[in-house]
Amino acid sequence: MQFETKVAILVLEDLAVWQKLNVTAFLATGMAGAAPEMMGEPYEDAAGRAHARLFGQPIMIFAATPEVLARAWRQSIERDLTRAAYVRAMFSTGHDAANREAFRAENAEAPDLVGLALRGPRKEVDKAVKGASLHP
Q1: C-beta of residue 72 within 8 angstroms of C-beta of residue 128
Q2: How far apart are CA 87 and CA 89, in angstroms?
Q3: Could you tell me whether strands 113-121 and 43-44 are parallel, antiparallel, or unpaired per DSSP bridges?
Q4: Of 13, 96, 123, 129, whose CB is crowded by the most CB atoms within 10 A?
């Protein structure tokens, strides 16, 4: 199945594994919140138990350098893509309000990104993530 939109998560390649997983999880929830239409139907197992909905389309996870993240940031703004961002300062916070304060304190044109999620038309997302490689 081909989707009209694409979802990509870029994660700084030199983070610790726990940080990569944490950033990916937070950014995925950002996409779910920004585009609830991405969510599939609830799951049900063979015993009839209900399970949570998952995204209804694939999410591509990329490893990125700081330069690639900065480029994707600029491209996402220029192309008006839906985006969620995670900055390094958020690793030292403990709750959502503190995360938002840390993000707001960043340079709006060049935040210290460690992760970025993008959603939009396939071609536009592909152009924005150019230079990133699929996460190994």
Answers
A1: yes
A2: 6
A3: unpaired
A4: 129
Largest CA distance in the chain: 51
Q: What is the pTM of this model?
A: 0.94
**CA 59, 21, 15: angle at the middle one, nearest 5?**
115
Quickly count: other Cβ atoms within 10 Å of residue 83's Cβ.
21
- 83-93 per-position pLDDT tens digit: 999 999 999 99
Extract the tokens encoding 91.
């690793």
DSSP-based helix, strand, coil % in the chain, nearest 5: 40, 25, 35
Amino acid, res. 9: I
Which pair of tokens denotes residue 131? Answer: 């230079």
Q: Which two tokens stand for residue 136?
A: 């190994």
